[in-house]
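hiii so um. not sure if this is the right channel but i have a protein structure encoded as tokens and i wanna go backwards to a sequence. like what aa goes where. can anyone help
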């Protein structure tokens, strides 16, 4: 019974995540890249301590990890 309930829950969730995968890839990957490039640009242009460079790099890494988690969830639901 629980196996059947798992499949009833798994298939619609997998379909929804699969449909939104390109959007998530574009948004999370793009924002991660943009955050990392902005952090590098501001680190070179602004004086020391004028901009939280490590905070921006942390945001970029967090977005990349969120995208990795999204793909891991897709992989787990498709197995």
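sure thing!! here u go:
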């Amino acid at each position: 019974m629980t196996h059947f309930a798992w499949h009833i829950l798994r298939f619609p969730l997998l379909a929804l995540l699969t449909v939104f995968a390109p959007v998530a890839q574009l948004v999370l990957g793009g924002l991660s890249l943009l955050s990392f490039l902005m952090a590098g640009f501001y680190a070179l242009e602004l004086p020391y301590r004028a901009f939280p460079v490590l905070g921006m790099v942390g945001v970029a890494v967090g977005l990349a990890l969120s995208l990795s988690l999204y793909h891991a969830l897709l992989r787990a639901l498709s197995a």
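oh and DSSP finds three helices and no strands in the chain.
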